[in-house]
Amino acid sequence: MSILKYAAGVPVVAAVVASLYGGLSYVNALQNTVELNEKTIITMELTIQANNDKINMRLDNEVSKIMTWGNGNFENDNIRINNVEGGMLRAREELTRELANLNIMIAKAITLGESLREAQYKLASEAELRALEEMVRTASDLVRQQGYDVKELARQMNGGY
């Protein structure tokens, strides 16, 4: 009789182990997704920084070319320089606007990444809670069914209904 008592607990233990394995696999997959998104955001930030450095270097080169430009005809050069300076001011204003828009886009991407990370952790917590509730419900049903089976077996052993 004691062997049947222990044999009845084997499906309960198997159900608990299987549920724990499924929950851990799900959490591991979510963690991998978060890490991949973090790597992508870091790569994007590095690319944007490299592009900003290239733009600054090109602007510095152009400014140095303009500063060293001259052929001895200072009146024409001054007129040309004044025209170039006006164009440079307009270009600098446009560049400033574009950089501001780029910074806004970077901030949005960072905020989106952080919110996705927080949402995934919240989703994982809710999923774990649902999985645990389902495990408890399943284990309760299995224990109840085992009780009915034991009563039925006892009735049959006693000779009838």
Keywords:
2 helices; single chain; 161 residues; 94% helix; mainly alpha
Descriptive overview:
The protein has one domain (7-155). 94% of the residues lie in helices and 0% in strands. It is built from two helices and no strands. The protein has helices spanning 2-68, 74-157. 0% of the residues are buried. The model has no long low-confidence stretch (mean pLDDT 81).
Mean pLDDT: 81
The total count of helices amounts to 2
H-E order: HH
Helix/strand class: mainly alpha
**Biggest β-sheet description:** none
Quantity of strands, as a count: 0
Which stretches of 5+ consecutive residues score pLDDT under 50?
A: none
Rounded to the nearest angstrom, the radius of gyration is: 36 Å
In one word, what is the shape? rod-shaped
Secondary structure: helix percent: over 70%
Oligomerization category of the chains in this entry = single chain
Q: What number of structural domains do the residues give?
A: 1
N-to-C span = 20 Å
What's the short story on this structure?
It is built from two helices and no strands.
Write the layout of secondary structure elements.
Blueprint: H1 2-68, H2 74-157
Helix pairs in contact: 1-2
